[in-house]
Fold this sequence. Notes:
By secondary structure, the protein is mainly alpha-helical. The protein contains seven helices and three strands, in the order E-H-E-E-H-H-H-H-H-H. The chain has two domains: 2-78, Glutaredoxin (3-Layer(aba) Sandwich); 85-196, Glutathione S-transferase Yfyf (Class Pi), Chain A, domain 2 (Up-down Bundle), CATH 1.20.1050.10. The protein has helices at 10-21, 67-78, 88-114, 122-147, 153-168, 179-188, 192-196; strands at 2-5, 29-32, 55-57.
Amino acid sequence: MKLYHNAASPFVRKVHLLVIESGQEDSVELVASGGSPMDSSNMPVAENPLGKIPALERTDGPALYDSRVICQYLDALAGGGFYPEARKWEAMVLEATADGIMDAAVLMVYEGRCRPEEMVYDAWVEAQWDKVSRALDAIEARWLSHLHGPMDMGHLATAAALGYLDFRHEARDWRAGRPSLAAWFGTFSERDSFQRSAPS
Ligand code: BEZ
């Protein structure tokens, strides 16, 4: 299989974390991709008409997208450990929360990258950060016992989201006021999968 990949994308990193943690590296080749909403020239548009990564080219059917679909597919191939039946809804809601953090954090980056400077709308950027902030507060308040339990897709998605905040929004200091989440992430970020999936 081919995973259209760019290490800067937190959605790609989430999938890459699953590939490594579920022992599927030998069957998933990473294919370098890039671009932005304004330039899909190096994006897998034949595999994903939306021109977005990650996309997964399979040997036994059409390509898959988006990241949640790919993760469920790879998890099924690996035997189902990352959406465990007993905690499936919790894992999926935590993944959705982390994906929402990624969505808002990426939109903040695109606002600065894709728009002419005089058209950047600061209030809109701050509204995206408000979403990130609320979601982080919810994870700190509600999800720490889950995060300290057996690893599932919620863990991988949360780690990918927090890694992206450090990568693109370090000055926002997401750790302030969230000591438990910061401590959990400190431990998670020592994992081999996290180190090897990092953007350079
Ligand atoms: C980034 O450079 O921040 C980025 C790249 C690809 C997808 C999403 C974000």
